[in-house]
């Protein structure tokens, strides 16, 4: 065998429980012999420059150079004068797609048991343009932008994702009856691109109907693609279906790099107490491994997580158990089968 | 006792199953001795003028004159060249608030059993401005408008509603971290008005978090107030929690008139077959009765619906039963206790 250079990954442990769940991920990855070298970078809790950034230029460049990042939860500054870290990263790294797989996990009690869907969110435009002003006092205009190139990017990403992951259906979620031009452009673009993927069933559905079905019978969905704001809402809604943000993986994808992330909070009340559940960050790391081509390690860790949760012996407090982060980490490591 | 003039109500039976469920409502109201005279008005399936209207000016005027309307499901024309009926009514009648109570119904199996919340949606602005254009080919701008007067109207309505209905909490749902000025204006206005209602607990929550909690533990919510598009999404999501649009009441409120409505579809596959479930339209009618001050009749019918559903002997096909619309109607009438 050739000696293969390790992948370098930028790790943002973040704040609160961030460092301990990051440590858990590093330990589990090491046990699974994942060929990764981590490079730790900081997220700041206060703006570090005039522009209000919470992250150094060199950290963003590291993600560009190494192609991979993994990000823990981080604290949002109080007050004004800072730029949202997520929005900054998405814009500067052109992370145009946010991908969130949601699958019911045996061992985690929720009202639903057959959820297996993926939300794919356009991550750069829509209501997130940042273009807002008061036309007269008391009347605010906000520009929602929908562009053909962004629609093409996200639509193609969704269909490629479906094809690669052997998924059968893509639904484009929209409100084109009301936003005829903007959301109209979105669905027309999705439709056009769908014709290149004849093996995948393509449908369109209004975002309100989508959310009604998600709370009534979420098992009807497979891959879902949508503009930014709908994606923000639906991806959290879907996380709720499988037990919450503590269990949900998330990936932000550009054409040349990607940042995977836990989307839950920093849980300051239990920070440093060895009580946090590292699952969301771990499964985000698993997504990254699969994208790197490290399928074997990715699936081995994923299986170990599923076994640990369904066994139910070492659950952390958020899942009604009493295990420490370390107990859970050891249990996952014990289930790794390479 | 004085002889009291009956209320006049504009009834739009609509299309598909609309006429038969409207008949069921009229029969049940008659059995409950509701002092109402109905005036039937038509919704058209094709535009009736150049502007693309689906409703006559005189019908809108009738709602203004009589103050009350009840609307069944209606078919949306295929293609372009018409104006959305709902949007037209909201604009022309200034129906600034959409109110949707969602309460778990015994006898209707859903994943949740303790839902008891009300969504209050601003009904006139936000992304529904209709202001859209392509700045250059392939780039569409849509104006999301948030204005102080509309925020005040809806916030005040929400707090008044909470007070009158003895509800404890109001949560304002927003995305002010991203739309700092627009959604910021919304929550600042809600907050200002909340100070006039010290007995009601006021909180603010991001719309994505709201939707996550709705799918995870919806029982935490009470009255929810929000801008137009979020309201469109959340009110359907909440309908899903209690069994779908076939069971959900809806009211559109102005300062001087109101239109109550079933928000489900026309179900053309079962139209005319005496199989439709009239519950959504009936409970919308009950909302109307309570708003008219006809509490006794309103509660009597509501109780009769709850009994009929929880008894489970005469359920229509959508709820897994075999009863006809007429069977169900008779059962409800049988349970009316004046
Ligand atoms: C923090 C906020 C700007 C962000 C968003 O709305 O995109 C968050 O909710 C997310 O989903 O990453
Ligand atoms: C038909 C459509 C324009 C409408 C809306 O989005 O408001 C509908 O979904 C509703 O909720 O009444």
Secondary-structure topology with pairs:
The structure is a homodimer of 338-residue chains.
Chain A: E1 7-12, H1 18-31, E2 36-40, H2 57-66, E3 68-71, H3 85-92, E4 97-103, E5 116-122, E6 132-136, E7 139-147, H4 148-164, E8 169-174, H5 182-194, E9 201-206, H6 207-216, E10 223-226, H7 228-242, E11 249-253, E12 258-262, H8 279-292, H9 295-311, H10 325-334
Parallel strand pairs in A: 1-2, 1-3, 3-12, 5-10, 8-9, 8-10
Antiparallel strand pairs in A: 4-5, 4-11, 6-7, 11-12
The complex binds 3-isopropylmalic acid (2 copies).
Query: How many β-strand stretches of chain A?
Result: 12
Largest sheet of chain A: 10 strands, mixed
Fraction in helix of chain A: 25-40%
What bound compounds does this protein have? 3-isopropylmalic acid
Question: Roughly how many Å apart are the termini of chain A?
Answer: 18 Å
* Largest protein-protein interface: A-B, 57 and 57 residues
Structural class of chain A: alpha/beta
Beta-strand proportion of chain A: 15-25%
Query: How are the strands of the largest sheet of chain A arranged?
Result: 2-1-3-12-11-4-5-10-8-9
Oligomer: homodimer
> Radius of gyration of chain A in whole Å, from Cα?
20 Å
- Specify the overall morphology of chain A: globular
The average pLDDT score of chain A comes to 95
- What is the overall number of helices of chain A? 10
Order of helices and strands of chain A: EHEHEHEEEEHEHEHEHEEHHH
Detail the poorly predicted runs of chain A: none
Family (chains A, B): Belongs to the isocitrate and isopropylmalate dehydrogenases family.
GO biological process, one term (chains A, B): tricarboxylic acid cycle
InterPro entries (chains A, B): IsoCit/isopropylmalate_DH_CS (IPR019818), IsoPropMal-DH-like_dom (IPR024084)
GO molecular function, one term (chains A, B): isocitrate dehydrogenase (NAD+) activity
